[in-house]
Each structure stands twice: as C-alpha cells, then as structure tokens.
Design a protein that fits this description.
By secondary structure, the protein is mostly helical. A hairpin with a 2-residue loop joins strand 1 (56-59) and strand 2 (62-65). The model has no long low-confidence stretch (mean pLDDT 80). Strands 1-2 form a two-stranded antiparallel ribbon. It has a single domain, classed as Large-conductance mechanosensitive channel, MscL, domain 1 (Non-ribosomal Peptide Synthetase Peptidyl Carrier Protein, Chain A, Orthogonal Bundle). It is built from four helices and two strands; from the N terminus they run H-H-E-E-H-H.
Length: 127
Amino acid sequence: MLKEFKEFLMRGNVIDLAVAVVIGGAFQKIVSALVTAIINPIIAAIFNAEAIAKVVWTIGSVNLGVGELAAAIINFLIVGAVLFVVVKAMNTAQNLRKKDEEVVEEVPATPTTEELLAQIRDLLADK
C-alpha cells in the first residue's frame, strides 16, 4: 500500500497540482496586498471614507456596506485576469509545440543509398 501511495504521489499530475496550489496561494497573497494597500484606499478616497470597509450607500433608512464587496470583486477580477493570461500563454505554447512536431513529421524521408543507386541505374539505362 505504501508503494502504491508513493507511485500516486510521483505521478506528474499530482506534482503539477501541488506546485499550482502553492504558487496560487502565494499569488493570492500578492493580489490581496495590492487590493488592500493600493486599490482599497483609492476607492475609499473616491467615496470620501476612511477605509473601504466604511464605504456605504444609504437607501432610505438602510445602509448598504458595499466596500468589502467591491474589494472582493476587484480581487476576483485581478486573479481571473492573470489566470486567463497564464492559461492562454500555456495553450499558445502547447499549440506551437504541436505545430513544430507536425512539421517534423511532414519532412519527407531521405532516400536510402540503394534507392539512389537504383535511380542512377535507371537514368543511365534510359540513355
């Protein structure tokens, strides 16, 4: 059972997934810091609030706290945009590699020495 578990862990897909999760977690921290330190204060300044969490819309007697929702949406859009770019780049690279492999496969095989000698013989026989 331990051997099967080791084989499972050593498969490429599991290792790739683990790397993706670690990198994704680190990237999420970067995006959260960007949103918290730069974008949230800009939004708070636009709405004349101390912090984005204090940005509220008042409709009648109801206060809607839209600041945190806005921060979460911005965070999601940044992560989604970067993931889109990464996946698009990976697909483009994969397609280029497939095209290169197809070009290599389309190269005609060079004739063997015997085939060349047979062609020369046939040419000499025609004269």
